[in-house]
């Protein structure tokens, strides 16, 4: 079998590695000259950690990253509202929540892909069209010289992000159902000693205008600070306003000389899901298929679980253990079902919790925070909370159950 994967982000690279480990030939294409280095996600829930294990890279991820400890929701002055102790469950879970910035994960995944003879990498290949017939699928790309190139395979998978050309070719330029939040998130990477102010590894600050997330993302003191900003501001205005936001929001009210800022990346946030994640021999996964806001890390985890499940489907097809039509329909139904029933509502609640909740009454009025507080003295409730928080059960069930049951894998 030969699978063409469009998009060399983390999901495309992970899918390539899993398929290549099963001796499936992969052509991995990307419109850019190399992997993306912008400040983006960094946290991998247990269901995503399981997929990194499938790809054969978990040992390297754990070597370069770390497992966070406590997670706290706070008022804007830093006062703790409620804390989830040992949020990674690292003491008793081999698939514990793991942290590694996406740009570092990308470099690690790329090295593995470059070393695998089953994976052919094609940079500066912008997909302009896709097609299929009863026995094959193909993409048409425009290379750096401007020439059109046709690449043929058995299946095509779009992992090419929120502006996916594969999705647009299937459903049209404007057809991506859902909504765009009236919010602009600014992701920054910054060296600043939050720990000196009593901040934990992960912190969510609840405030109507100055809400933000501050999380340690490396062992040498780099933090991710993602905050809300006025949607009317341009990129230049966002950058110019950043020092004032930090001085007002962060503990210690720092001035620019008090921290080292590496990146500033503003973006709009969405809750959207494609009409289908499979049309014949062409599939969608990760951000090409669905989007959610970044609070809680469900977009990245959901995308990795997409490709983990899709890889199982394609491997089963290659080994003639399942019917292609049946199993790809299951992939489509299960993964879109997970988005609509789990990822969308939970990630939406995560965002509203920090941006539209009164911090003075948050524990009393927010069911999840109330559960976190009660779980401190209730081991059974804590186990239930861990399953929800880490998505061990919710994101991984469905395809795996099918393989064990009616699918015959």
From TrEMBL:
This is FAD protein. Keywords: FAD, Flavoprotein, NAD, Oxidoreductase, Signal. The lineage of its organism: Eukaryota, Fungi, Dikarya, Ascomycota, Pezizomycotina. The keyword Secreted does not apply. Transmembrane segments: none annotated. Coiled coil: none annotated. One of its GO terms (molecular function) is FAD binding. It comes from the Eukaryota. Residues 1-16 form the signal peptide. InterPro entries: FAD-bd, FAD/NAD-bd_sf, PheA/TfdB_FAD_monoxygenase. Residues 2-340 form the FAD-binding domain. Pfam families: FAD_binding_3.
